[in-house]
Write a structure and sequence with these properties.
alpha/beta, Rossmann fold, Helicase, Ruva Protein, domain 3, two-stranded antiparallel ribbon, 14 helices, 13 strands, about 45% helix, about 20% strand
Amino acid sequence: MGTYLFIFVGLNRMHIMEENINPAESLRIVSEQIKLEMPTINLLRAEVGKVIVGQTYMIDRLLIALLADGHVLLEGVPGLAKTLAIKTLSDAINVDFSRIQFTPDLLPADVTGTLIYSQKSESFSVKKGPIFSNFVLADEINRAPAKVQSALLEAMQERQVTIGDETFKLPYPFLVLATQNPIEQEGTYPLPEAQVDRFMLKVFLDYPSKEEERQIIRANVQKEGMASASNVISIKDVERCRSLVKQVYLDEKIEQYIVDIVYATREPEKYGLGFLEPMISIGCSPRASINLALAAKAFAFLQGRGFVIPEDIREIAPDVMRHRMGLTYEAEAENLTASDIVAKIVAKVEVP
């Protein structure tokens, strides 16, 4: 019988206790604590829903990234409320928010900050850039050249920024929420593979339904103007939920299932998917496995469960893996997308 660490949430503070207890009891306690936190998550969802009509899929993915401490890349044509959703989420949590509009003439220092020389004191001082916020919206990130995009790399991975010879820690929590227009549009630059790999999720957005679009029209033309989100939860609430997400149970069989799905992008013939080998130039990196496990835990939490099931993996796999694969010209000739390949892999790999 092992030692397990549990978090008991009181009305005013969080109590941490250590007890000897069996795994089944551990799972039960975590599940009960998750149920207690669901009203907080539902409140956040409802507040965001006051401003954002529809787009449930996008909102859920933003919440997964928030709970799993990951970054999100949102892709879709202009006007799908990508920027508005991110701003609304930051308003509902009351965290520092900054927006960086990526343009072809943007410089790395415009993102991270720079050293400024003062003639009066004959010394340099640090002027921090907009990256020093809890939520950083990198709007139309693929409008800027690679040297600017790469300025985010250290911040996204190490949660720190180096200016001159000094290194500064970024605030907690820190999330980069980037939007981009489809690469086919004029005046865009493909993101460097090293940077794309640092986004936990890549989410594709589609047009709203007819009924949703009618609601959008009503919300924008009413006399009192568009609704705005109020602060409904705090950073402490987010920390508490994140702590519970880490305790969500991930069975060894589920771990192996994750490894098999990711490994099938590297050696598809071993999983009876030999026909995909000419389609994939680069398989998913180990970050795919890590982020698939973390995102699945957060997804299970949002469903009110204290354990991950195979359906969670299947549901979240496309968002975690689609941007981590390189496709060949043959795949493009066959009109196969990364999402199509992930779907074929998930359908073939044996479920535990």
